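Need a sequence for this fold. Nothing fancy.
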């Protein structure tokens, strides 16, 4: 039972890291878009 829970915990931690990576990439894209739009507004 403990081993099964450890496996579940490892799987959930891996999923969380993958989601954090995906969110980080998405945020970076938003920041790039914001910077580009701000440049367009100023020009």
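Here you go.
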């Amino acid at each position: 039972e403990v081993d099964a829970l450890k496996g579940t915990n490892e799987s959930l931690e891996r999923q969380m890291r993958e989601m954090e990576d995906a969110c980080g990439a998405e945020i970076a894209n938003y920041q790039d878009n914001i910077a580009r739009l701000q440049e367009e507004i100023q020009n």
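For context: The chain has one helix and no strands.
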